[in-house]
Specification:
By secondary structure, the chain is low in regular secondary structure. It is built from one helix and two strands.
């Protein structure tokens, strides 16, 4: 019965699961990946800030589709979502 759940369809995602991985690079060339601790697993780099700090993140999307990110614990306006 398991094969029934692996079929693609309007109510099923099938057997292909695409994932995006966020990585940190050493400069704007996006050629040299920054060292990262193994405990992060597939998680992206940790962003640290204090109250009243401004966080600026430069992204380059190498994926085949659009993605967004959600920084937990950071206040931002509704129109800045997605």
């Amino acid at each position: 019965h398991a094969s029934l759940f692996l079929q693609s369809g309007p109510q099923r995602i099938g057997s292909v699961y695409k994932k995006a991985v966020y990585r940190q690079y050493t400069d704007a060339s996006y050629l040299i990946e920054a060292p990262r601790p193994g405990w992060l697993g597939y998680l992206g780099p940790v962003l640290r800030a204090e109250v009243d700090d401004v966080i600026i993140v430069h992204l380059k999307n190498f994926a085949s589709r659009n993605y967004s990110m959600h920084p937990h614990g950071v206040f931002y306006e509704k129109d800045s979502e997605g």
